[in-house]
């Protein structure tokens, strides 16, 4: 189940950010850059409609449903539940997410990957178990903001000891998350008896506050920081063109300087086009490598599993416990797939970052040549930051593309289960026929050996099946990732090339401008540059 | 929280007597066991007298019951409840870290068994956790331990891999079979880790290890699945699916109830209902309202609420409350099953243990003798019955009603003929004979099914033989009377 936070309602920073983006968009459109204006329009949509998803997960029976009810009381079955009066936090029920057992956990992980925050629930009846810690470790790799909740503290007098033990286990596993002790039942009793102190003792209000104030604000800050980076990048690019024009306007006679500037701008534009080729190679190679690694990882895990399974088959007559064996194998396959999905997701993010860094490094080398002086906006360090912001942006976009392919990933879980069932039946039937026909002719040893051989074949067939289905799913997923990255960086490269070309054109035009027209244009450009600076400074002031 | 056992051991006659009495039931089986003595004599020239006598001592040793389950399933608490004394350390956080054996002894002793077999006496309860410890062994003069040696295992799913590994090394050793005669498996709700461990234990049953698994739905006073839900859970296909709800905590509190505890609980029960309800809303509120720190520690919130309800419901003396708590705990159901499954066949089981040890010692030598032992083990119908009972959950080719009927006729609910055939107590020998013959015919007809798989066929044959055994016994009785 998940909680969607909706901070749409007018918060002062949100309104100011939106106003600022509107003004910058008008300015940008006025300088003939509709592409950058579009980018600002998208940022505005993100600012005013950032749906924050908080996924609640944990083993079944640990009090997940009760916690969701406590955080967001509503008629059962209601899909969207407001947590607070302003309707900023909404609970969205999504069945079948709970459980850290392998098959169900595999299905829950994609949801976790798309969440802005995760609540991990375990009750106070016992300390965290090894499977829970393993699961948490995967969760925090997929979602940066995880909050631990220890439930049912009304039933267990020793909950503080359990909490301490949990902290110990978490520290040992190097997992650094807050742990909130709560009791949904105490909160319900508090509401019934209108006992305010009891409500506080339940710990639920504190958790809700944390969600609203820390998690929500954190996520909003991450979002705003991304938008501010967008603002920076756009102002940089617009200023670049304006500055080139201004230099040419101010120095019409000294054709040599302008000539040199023109030349430099041309070189830069060329370098940008080269860079475009460079990152595409990084991405293409990286994607191929990623695909191969993910595939290899799955094959390796399944091979190990086959080895384990065969050892098990050889150790006894497989027909005797084929069903147990089947469900064991099913569980282990689910584990393998789960680990493989986690690997694919973390590696995809790494690839995105690698491409972004590559982009930024090249940028630092190429862009300082364009330094036309005069604006603090063009310091090399800022340049790098501006590109880093694209990195933050792409990770976010990557996540939403992952979200788009949940269906695909969820399929893996279902498919594995089906494959597990398919495994048991054909072979059981086969074994039955075999036994019926050959009881008299074959001696026992030969029969066992034959069963073992058939069992091995069945296992191998299943593994082929799993490899085929999971491999197809994961190739599909990785292609999506690659496409998202390609589109993102292509747009980015186009923007930058266009900026350089524009600067070139503006400088050329400026030289042809004379007399009054020039003075008026200088005043206009200076005013625009001044406003760009102001907007940039105001945007920076909004994140702190 | 841990307790020392230097206090007086309480005599909990109401539970133990049921176990001890039925020791007499299996005396008939001793006769058949005697015929095996030839095997031991034949081994004397090979192994020497000392070794053979050591094997024979098994004939008098209590049977071994291991408690298994994941972390905090309530194993140690249930073990204490069975013994009737808080001897195994229990805690809200992990504390059973090595396999601990509880056996009979004239006076309390505790020993650490080190890796390599060396033993050293230790204080009890042990402080901290020994590193190179293999296991612990505790001796106690408790009535139940006369009949059973109990083995407490640390849970799997522990955050310490070493602890989980020690549990597995005991329950499912890489080399050989688990030494326990039966396993009581505790679970609070069914998770993957339970399925994994249950599968390994059940596989041990199939390999000639323990003769069966008794399922317990533990900490039954808390929220959790119902036995019916477990019975219908498809994940348990091929595994034991009958889980008896037991609250080890209520049982232990009942079996060790002290007068001062009763007085405190009775005082609570006299408080106005609304006032006590408000106090029971959380541990903090309870402490503030009553100051009963010790009560909270030992009984837990639910234990207190349950005890107060029982006092209010009429358990107005300490013995009455103790009895009511034990009744509510489900402990007697568990001891009854253990009795039906294991206690009533103790002699056959002990002979099996002795023969298995003899076979182990003979390893690689005297192959004819070993074959003889194997034959003896395979032929003993009491053992065949137990093996079949243990394997029943895995016979998924048979319909569930058939498996239930097989369980009864093979003596899964008790070995008395009337129980096996579902007849009222006190039927005449003639009626009994007729019923047994009818049952034997019924099961033999089922054997005609050509599609029957070999394991199911074996189970049906065992049922036929059990019925024939009852018929023969009834015939003897009828002639004699
Ligand atoms: N005492 C107590 N019981 C709780 C609390 N929260 C949940 N439970 C109980 O725990 C069981 C499982 O709760 P539920 O919310 O359905 O768990 P889920 O399976 O994780 O969704 C139910 O019997 C609940 O009544 C709590 O705060 N205190
Ligand atoms: N409510 C309740 N708590 C129990 C029960 N059995 C054990 N516990 C509690 O569960 C915790 C762990 O019990 P323990 O016997 O040490 O579990 P083990 O790890 O399986 O040996 C302790 O805090 C016990 O008090 C029970 O039947 N009911
Ligand atoms: Mg639920
Ligand atoms: Mg324990």
Bound molecules: guanosine-5'-diphosphate, magnesium ion
How many individual β-strands of chain B?
9
Quote the beta fraction of chain B: 5-15%
Structural class label of chain B:
alpha/beta
In terms of DSSP E residues, the strand content of chain A is 5-15%
Radius of gyration of CA atoms of chain A, rounded to a whole number: 30 Å
- Proportion of helical residues of chain B: 40-55%
Number of helices of chain B: 23
Distance between the termini of chain B: 59 Å
Q: What is the subunit organization of this protein?
A: heterodimer
In this structure, how is the largest beta sheet of chain B organized?
9 strands, mixed
CATH class of one domain in chain A: Alpha Beta
Mean pLDDT of chain B: 84
Query: What gyration radius of chain B follows from the Cα positions, in whole Å?
Result: 24 Å
CATH topology of one domain in chain A: Rossmann fold
Total number of helices of chain A: 15
Strand line-up of the largest beta sheet of chain B: 4-3-5-2-6-1-7-8-9
Write out key terms for the chains shown:
heterodimer, A: 544 residues, alpha/beta, Rossmann fold, 7 strands, 74% helix, B: alpha/beta, 3 domains, 9-stranded mixed sheet, 9 strands, 10% strand, disordered N terminus, binds guanosine-5'-diphosphate, binds magnesium ion
Task: Set down the secondary structure blueprint.
The complex is a heterodimer of chains A (544) and B (481).
Chain A: E1 2-5, H1 12-30, H2 34-48, E2 52-58, H3 64-71, E3 80-82, E4 89-92, H4 102-113, E5 117-123, H5 130-142, E6 146-151, H6 159-172, E7 179-181, H7 184-193, H8 196-201, H9 204-250, H10 255-314, H11 322-366, H12 380-404, H13 406-438, H14 444-512, H15 515-542
Parallel strand pairs in A: 2-5, 5-6, 6-7
Antiparallel strand pairs in A: 1-2, 1-4, 3-4
Chain B: H1 13-21, H2 27-34, H3 37-47, H4 49-57, E1 63-69, H5 75-83, E2 99-104, E3 109-114, E4 119-121, E5 133-140, H6 143-147, E6 148-152, H7 161-171, E7 182-187, H8 192-206, E8 213-217, H9 227-231, E9 243-245, H10 248-255, H11 259-270, H12 273-279, H13 283-290, H14 293-312, H15 318-329, H16 331-341, H17 346-362, H18 367-379, H19 381-391, H20 400-409, H21 417-421, H22 429-446, H23 454-480
Parallel strand pairs in B: 1-6, 1-7, 2-5, 7-8, 8-9
Antiparallel strand pairs in B: 2-6, 3-4, 3-5
Helix pairs in contact in B: 3-4, 3-17, 4-17, 5-10, 10-15, 11-14, 17-18, 19-23, 22-23
Bound molecules: guanosine-5'-diphosphate (2 copies) and magnesium ion (2 copies).
